[in-house]
Amino acid sequence: MRIDLLTLFPEVCEAVLSESIVGRARRKGAVQVCCHQIRDFAFDRHQRVDDSPFGGGMGMLLMAEPIALCLDDLAAHLGGRPHTVYLSPQGNTLTQQRVKELAAMDGLALLCGHYEGVDERVLDEYVDEELSIGDYVVTGGELPALILADAVCRLVPGVLSASECFELESHYNSLLEYPQYTRPAVWRGRAAPDVLLTGDHGKVRRWRREQALLRTARRRPELLRAAALTAEDRAFLRRAGIEVPEG
Fold first, then answer.
1. Other CB atoms within 10 Å distance of the CB of residue 55
2. Residues 6+ apart with CB under 8 A from 234
3. How big is the CA angle at 235 (ends 233 and 238), to the nearest 5 degrees?
4. Is the pLDDT at 162 greater than 80, yes or no?
5. pLDDT tens readout for residues 207-222
6. Signed CA dihedral, 88, 91, 94, 100: sign only
7. CA distances (Å), 108 to each of 1, 229, 230, in order?
8. What superfamily would CATH give domain 168-239?
9. pTM here?
10. Based on the number of CB atoms within 10 Å of its own CB, is 3 exposed (0-12), middle (13-18) or buried (19 or more)?
11. Nearest one of 181, 182, 180, 173 to 216, comparing CA atoms
């Protein structure tokens, strides 16, 4: 998996991507993540990449040509154009399902907007999809792109120690993750659940499944409709007084 970020702030992106799990994965070659400075494709010695929007309005807009040249250069280097995503509050909301689909691709190019965004024509010409990390606005596309890159990288084989590291996490299978505990067994008068201290892996596994079901039903009940519920899951939810979705 290769991910390329097109940005005005590659140093900021590198600082994040060089640390923790993604940083280790890059160093051992499990993933390749590269950051490209859009200003390198500007036309003048001041490396200007923005201008006032036609029709007036507040702020500045990134021009189409520097972005297009950056994407063309990337495509020439790779021998083809990767799937290109523009991080935008107007895009489809990012979900774990979409992350799984993107992680199955050979490569991604993530375009980070700034100021008031980018010239619409470069989106029409180059961008395959727009994605949003939520219904709010941040100052640029770098943070959303880093979130997407991190979410995708951790699903790539070899990045985490085992697939179980993400398969039981929130949203992967349309369930929220079960609560977790560590030492000490009693903290400020609050004890960890006894079942977790028994050493009985079967009981622990069932308890975790039941807690995931309960937490999802109480916090995000709409997710249950997409979850693969067994007959045992459905019986447990009914005993807990929770309406079980059809399916």
1. 5
2. 244
3. 110
4. no
5. 999 999 999 999 999 9
6. negative
7. 8, 33, 36
8. tRNA(m1g37)methyltransferase, domain 2 (1.10.1270.20)
9. 0.88
10. buried
11. 173
